[in-house]
UniProtKB/TrEMBL annotation:
A biological-process GO annotation: phospholipid biosynthetic process
Keyword Cell cycle: no
Highest taxon of source: Bacteria
Organism annotation: Hymenobacter nivis
Protein name: Inositol-3-phosphate synthase
Amino acid sequence: MNNPKGPLAPAEGKLGILLPGMGAVATTLIAGVLAMRKGTAQPIGSLTQMGKLSTSTGNPKIKDFAPLTALDDLEFGGWDVYEDNVYEAALNAGVLDYKTLKGVRAEMEAIKPMKAAFDRHYVKNLDGTHIKTYTTKEDLAQQVIDDIRNFKAERGCSRLVMVWCGSTEIYHEPTETHRTLAAFEEGLRNNAPNIAPSMIYAYAALKEGVPFVNGAPNLTVDVPALLELAATTSTPVAGKDFKTGQTLMKTIVAPGLSARSLGVKGWFSTNILGNRDGLVLDDPDNFRTKEVSKLSVLDSVFHPEENPELYGDMYHKVRINYYPPAGDNKESWDNIDIFGWMGYPMQIKINFLCRDSILAAPLVLDLALFMDLAKRAGWSGIQEWLSFYLKSPQTEPNIRPEHDIFKQLVTLHNTLRLLMGEEPVAAASEEAYQDGPQAS
Ligand SMILES: NC(=O)c1ccc[n+]([C@@H]2O[C@H](COP(=O)([O-])OP(=O)(O)OC[C@H]3O[C@@H](n4cnc5c(N)ncnc54)[C@H](O)[C@@H]3O)[C@@H](O)[C@H]2O)c1
């Protein structure tokens, strides 16, 4: 793995975190950070704030080892199709209770979403009207660029990152429009229907050199045209889909089964979810995007092509059911049919009563802080070392995505060690990262 070229710029001044989509995840993040600044909450679940790593001199917290932006230096902004301020949106999302929100109410009320770049074709189940009008998609992208510039100037930020926390868009495949930057820009001018709103935000961010993370399974920045733009403007990107809930459990349990050479015959995963995300995913086209993301996980941990006698016949099924009474408290069930010595069958049942946004919020914080670090280190393009946080990690075409959470953590730690001039620890997972993150 190469050390990054050039010096690591310090985390001076304020970092603006821009969030397209200010719903459950985004508002839970903001409320948490504001409460942490007041000392009334702990950043549980955040690796940057609570995680440690071993170095030649000890076992420091990551935030004391790598020069990350302090929570006091963060500013929040974003866009939504509903005009509720962030406090109202948090109340609607129903993740945090009134008592928790009371202490940060004034600061949250002051954060109001900007008008969204939206197209109902991509998210049918939303009817918000707080949306931009435009002539061409080029004009729409320019409006988002103007928003970015205005936010940066008004809030006095020295740096920005953008993390897509908007709804999951419908499933679509890359086309000619997404193949090159020139074709994409032509598509913007001609209102190409296959340029989704999330791509407009990504394009605007990358044009401005703002690192972009895709927290949903949408195609978004996983197309050659936008990767070309990221390379042109030396900007880091990462995606897709925050790894929370059921998939988090899967990537914890599956590596253990694989480590013990236990076979898996079937893995049935079902969920009930009652928040707005669940409503959007109730539409089959939107669910398809999520399904593809969720299904990719097991194959890459078990490698059935290399272990056909253990995983060759594995049946994997994932379902999400919208059930309003569940609210944001997602409940998932996994039935895992495994087999052991001489093929004897066994079963594992997992019933995870999780709070989706409570698991997702610290991931947004960590991704934002690490993407800013990557930018200051002069890295650009896909940041595979952040796969730890993602359900469907984006990788360079020649690199197989890694889903095993333990290998992902080693890679993340080693990337930080190398950045700070330490030796990496030996781990089998390192082979895919011999060349290190792409330096600009
Ligand atoms: N909560 C989790 O654990 C989790 C895990 C993985 C991925 N995700 C993904 O993160 C995203 C956010 O999840 P959530 O629970 O906060 O959902 P949410 O429905 O509460 O919030 C999404 C918000 O995005 C807004 N939105 C939709 N399209 C937009 C656009 N074009 N521009 C601006 N705003 C737009 C919606 O109005 C909504 O307020 C979803 O795509 C979800 O699938 C969430």
